[in-house]
Amino acid sequence: MAAGTGKIALVTGATGGVGGAVAEALLRHGWRVRALTRRAVPHRPGIEWIKGDAMNPADMLRAAEGVDVLFHGANPPGYRNWRGLAIPMLHHAMAAAKTSGARLIYPGSVYPYGPDAWPVLGEQSPQHPTTRKGRIRMEMEWMLAAEAKQGLRYLTLRAGDYFGPHAPSSWVSMIMLQGGKRLSRIQTPERQGVRRAWAYLPDIGETIARLAAMEAGLPPAETLHFGGHALADRQMAEAVSRAYGGNLPVRRFPWALVYAAAPFNTTMREVLEMRYLWRETITLDNRRLLAVLGEEPHTPLDEAVAAAVAGLRASKER
């Protein structure tokens, strides 16, 4: 563990995948970490848990008092009522960061981009999303840019599809690993020839911890892209198969069943809206991140997938 920095970070969403990975990385780098939680305090040593709700501006202000960095990883589960929850929470996080003088760090995604920006996304690529979730994500990024003119310091790190030991809602966890169930086959949704970006959560956490350590030297409003694992065709599915001993067959995902269930199931409708991510090549240009950090934290694919499998199995046993 690194020597203490004397700095304090507030993490919202620390009970989730990305927030948890960021909190753990900050602890490794010697930060004092606070985390806002609505539920009973989880068992994660080293974190100062504060009871409160990101939907409550007073709770956010109280939790952010005296912090140097505020990582805003709170996200509505399953994208339910995203506009009604995600946008107010971001408003409250921005207000708390401005009041405390902290830099707000926000995990972005590829959602705000449309066909005119594909296949390789740069930080300044045009944002013309074609989906509802993409438009909401774009609006949230616009909120950050607008508040920067009023004194907010922020850093957005955009990345591809998350996966890792504590990412229960990711495609790898839900679709390929079936939530940790015993598998007889692996289903993969992509069109042949498509290349897409995957972001291993511990690598994201490490990247954000390194950026947080140098945030005072960054521009007041900064956006960087995380390249991650840019995989084509069935490379992710084959890595999952290797994690299970290499004996599981890889099959195409049954999209027809999703279409049939969509009229009756909110999650299936949300999945269909984002199907384009599996039909088009979309990767991220990380050259600016490399120029800032010198390297991008990168866990080998097989090691990362094995950790994701082990994490899901452990969560099923608890």
From TrEMBL:
<dbReference type="GO" id="GO:0004029">
    <property type="term" value="F:aldehyde dehydrogenase (NAD+) activity"/>
</dbReference>
<dbReference type="GO" id="GO:0005737">
    <property type="term" value="C:cytoplasm"/>
</dbReference>
<protein>
    <submittedName>
        <fullName>NAD-dependent epimerase/dehydratase family protein</fullName>
    </submittedName>
</protein>
<dbReference type="InterPro" id="IPR036291">
    <property type="entry name" value="NAD(P)-bd_dom_sf"/>
</dbReference>
<dbReference type="InterPro" id="IPR001509">
    <property type="entry name" value="Epimerase_deHydtase"/>
</dbReference>
<feature type="domain" description="NAD-dependent epimerase/dehydratase">
    <location>
        <begin position="9"/>
        <end position="214"/>
    </location>
</feature>
<dbReference type="Pfam" id="PF01370">
    <property type="entry name" value="Epimerase"/>
</dbReference>
<dbReference type="InterPro" id="IPR051783">
    <property type="entry name" value="NAD(P)-dependent_oxidoreduct"/>
</dbReference>
